[in-house]
Amino acid sequence: MCTYISQVRTYREARGLRQEQLAEAIGVCRKTICQIETERGHNTTLEIAYRLAAFFETTVEEIFPPADVNCREY
């Protein structure tokens, strides 16, 4: 099973946003953003991952790269 590293904080801070602002922009609570940013391998929904990717104008793979090098072969 693969785990993923969240780059959400990096993207959020690059835009000068607070967790509350990002949460409001994608329609989730601040606690969700906090968990995604701080928990390695956080199990977020695919829908939220797509919302984040769309908001940051990038791909899900860029925001959530695999932590395990072996997972990248898929």
Task: Walk me through what this model shows.
With 74 residues, the protein is mainly alpha-helical. It has a single domain (8-66), classed as lambda repressor-like DNA-binding domains (434 Repressor (Amino-terminal Domain), Orthogonal Bundle), CATH 1.10.260. The chain is 51% helix and 0% strand. The chain contains five helices and no strands. It has helices at residues 8-14, 19-26, 30-38, 46-55, 60-63. It starts with 7 loop residues before the first helix and ends in an 11-residue tail after the last helix.
What order do the helices and strands come in, and which of them pair?
Blueprint: H1 8-14, H2 19-26, H3 30-38, H4 46-55, H5 60-63
Short structural summary:
By secondary structure, this protein is an all-alpha fold. About 50% of the residues lie in helices and about 0% in strands. It starts with 7 loop residues before the first helix and ends in an 11-residue tail after the last helix.
Reading the helices and strands in chain order gives HHHHH
Largest sheet: none
Q: How much of the residues is beta strand, in percent?
A: under 5%
CATH domain fold name: 434 Repressor (Amino-terminal Domain)
- In DSSP terms (H or I, runs of 4 or more residues), the helix count works out at 5
Low-confidence spans: pLDDT under 50, at least 5 residues?
Answer: none
CATH-wise, what's the superfamily? lambda repressor-like DNA-binding domains
- Tell me how many strands there are: 0
What's the gyration radius in Å? 12 Å
CA-based shape: globular
CATH class assignment: Mainly Alpha
What integer is the average pLDDT?
87
**Annotated CATH architecture:** Orthogonal Bundle
